[in-house]
Structure formats: structure tokens, C-alpha cells
Amino acid sequence: NSFDITITTPPVINTPTDYVVCDDSTNNDLVYTNFILTTKDLEITSDATLTVAYYETFTNSQTGANPLTSPYSNIDYDGSQTIYVAVFNPASPTCRTLTQFNLIVNPSIH
Fold first, then answer.
1. Inter-CA distances, 79 with 11, 43, 73, 110, Å
2. Contact (CB, 8 A) for 18 and 93
3. For the whole model, what pTM was predicted?
4. CA distances to 33, 54, 87 from 63, in Å
5. Residue 13 and residue 61: Cα distance in Å, rounded?
6. Mean pLDDT for each 10-residue chunk of the chain (110 residues)?
7. Taking the mean position of all CA atoms in its chain, how far away is CA 22?
8. Is the Cβ–Cβ distance between 70 and 33 less than 8 Å?
9. CA 33 to chain CA mean position, Å
10. Across the strands, what pairs with 98?
11. In what order do the strands lie in the sheet with 51-55?
């Protein structure tokens, strides 16, 4: 009798810089409705075989539940929100590397 053991290592990734924008409304509500999260993909990894997914909570980034879509509108109205990132090989989706960055909305000057 014999068997094979496959060992999967988590992807090696980079920590992205914060995503900083100016408020896109005239009322300076610190809500920005056009975050294109996928613009961070190449900053995180240059490996096109990996999947990069974005989440509102750390737990969701661990489990893969409720990935965010782009464009994304921030939900924290104080001008800053943490986005959690999971990177994985689609063949081994439970073997994830996690990181995070902040969405920062600065007031616009009118």
C-alpha cells in the first residue's frame, strides 16, 4: 500500500499601501462610491495564478464568506475603513495568506 501526500504552502504576498482618495461628493460625507479594489491586486502579488479577494471583516477573509465587489463604497463614515485581503491558489482555496490595508477618504476642498 502506498499513498501520496501533497503539501501546499501559502502564497507569498506584499502588504499593500492604503487606498487614499478625496471625497467624491459636495457634502463631504467621507463616503466614496468608486473604490476599485482590484487596482491593488498587482501591488499584493504579481502571480497571475493566484486569486486576490477583498473582505470587510477579518473572519470573512479567513473563511472566504462575502467577498467584496468593485466598485466598492466604504461603510465607515469617519473617513477610514480597514479592508482585509485573502490570497490563495484556486486549487487550494483554504490555504490562504492574509493582509490588510485602509481605505481613506479625505474631505474635498470646495
1. 31, 22, 12, 17
2. no
3. 0.88
4. 26, 12, 12
5. 15
6. 86 96 75 89 96 97 96 83 96 94 85
7. 19
8. no
9. 16
10. 86
11. 19-22, 96-106, 80-88, 51-55
